[in-house]
Amino acid sequence: MVRARVDQKTFMAFMIPFLLTIATAGLLLLAVYSSPDPDNSILVDILLNLWMISLYAWLPIFIVLGIAFVYMGWYPPTFFKKTDPFLCRSDREKWAAAAGYLPLLELHASLPDTVEDTGLVGGGRPAPSRRKRYRAFLSTNFHITDRESGLAVLERLVASRQARDLCWGVLIAGMLFVCRWLKRDELNDWYGRFMTPIQDQFHSWTELNLRFQEEEAAAGMNDESVQVLRKAVERERNGLYQVRFL
């Protein structure tokens, strides 16, 4: 399964002042408490109360922002991994993850450390850095610069009879979702539109993937890269490709 580091810069930008506040107050409290001067007892009590107040004030903000960042797609949930809002949920989304797997590998080769997880819609959460890199890739390779140009490309690909175009179309739909150019219900509608021509022309994941590899080789992909795709398909026979093709 393809994975890469998750961008957590914004989360850490919040954690640093939180930790500094707690650490500074704790050290000050320790310094005063360790002083032999008995008159410091009142000051110790005041500092202790201030420290506890700062802790209780930051903690709920930290929790709320943490949940918000998860649902914004900036980083994965620390606990309850299955509640990740960007996991492929429905059978259609899982089917699309399998259909777009080989193009996703090519995307990972073009943009190392950008693809996060094959089990996520579009291969990753819509973190700002990933959206930026996805948009640059779509602009360079498919002339997609906004929602309208993205929809135009999807319309062209869904009308194709080539496995290469159809599989790339499935992945691009997911990438448009990551770029916030498609809503999730629109994404699932597009997945359904791509399912129809793929299932009409092919009868199994094996047939679809072999045709995809043949067309990529005919388009100029070198033998080494084709072998990488073949090995990846073999690795995922008991993973992504467990979902029913038809």
The general outline is: elongated
What is the tally of helical segments?
10
First-residue to last-residue Cα separation:
23 Å
What is the number of independent domains? Answer: 2
Q: Give the ordered list of helices and strands.
A: HHHHHHHHHH
- Using only C-alpha atoms, the radius of gyration works out to 25 Å
The biggest beta sheet is recorded as: none
Total strands: 0
Overall mean pLDDT stands at 84
Q: How much of the polypeptide forms β-strand, as a percent range?
A: under 5%
Short description:
This protein folds into 2 domains: 9-83; 91-242, no CATH class. Helix content is 67%, strand content 0%. It has 10 helices and no strands.
What does this structure look like?
The protein is an all-alpha fold and 246 residues long. The chain has two domains: 9-83; 91-242, no CATH class. The chain has helices at residues 9-33, 40-72, 91-99, 101-110, 128-142, 147-158, 163-178, 184-201, 205-218, 223-235. The longest helix has 33 residues, at 40-72. The protein is elongated and about 80 Å long. The two termini are 23 Å apart.
